[in-house]
Amino acid sequence: MRTRERPSTDTFGEAWERLFDPPAAHRGLWSPDGAPENSLAAFQAACAHGYAIELDVQLTADGEAVVFHDDRLERMTGREGRMRDHTAADLGAMTLKGTDETIPTLADALTMIGHRAMVFIELKTPFGEVGPLEKRVTDVLVDHNGPTAVIGFNPYSHAWFADHHPQILRGLNSYGWNDDNARKLAPEMRKSLAALEQIELARPDFLSLGLDMLPSPRADLYRAKGMPVIAWTVRSPDQWEGVQDHCDNLIFEGFHA
Prior knowledge:
InterPro entries: GP_PDE_dom (IPR030395), PLC-like_Pdiesterase_TIM-brl (IPR017946). By secondary structure, the protein is of the alpha/beta class.
């Protein structure tokens, strides 16, 4: 991994330096027989090992930002229904994967993490939508003194941050858009998303690219122009070895990077 030149202003502070090192644990440092993903225990484990943290946030029925990846509750809680139909209090009483861990709010997660780790906050805002989740995340970040960046696939979300809070470091997510969920999109939308056509709209500070996009001449071109590239989700040392010369950092799971 190589260090990029700091932007001409000190807009991002420590977050810019910690964009490049250490690697980020995907949904925290979780394991199938240990701390569940996106839990306070997984974030504590990542901090204890000196890693950065990637986590997911969504908006609850009562407008709170909570840390949870899936649209539905079944996989992580064993309950039926959509996450967004519940209040933060309801979700905070649900246990994760048969453990004592519950669904934390973003504010609670950042309070526990403090200044110990860089946090990549993936906003699960639906494509084309923007507003309530971005505003709530911003309110939480105002009270947090540790290094953070917002990431996500929605270019309109990034554009909102660029216009309203340019001091918050932001990274545009993308991947090959050839899985089952992506195939539900119109072909022209899939093509534009996979080709990084949204960069002009999003105006990101860095790119967070799936392994199916790396290495690629276009990503190399953006990187050569000074836009860092983070690889996700790296699940083995061999995978990282294959792309590390084309990236500046990694989001990993399943091993210790």
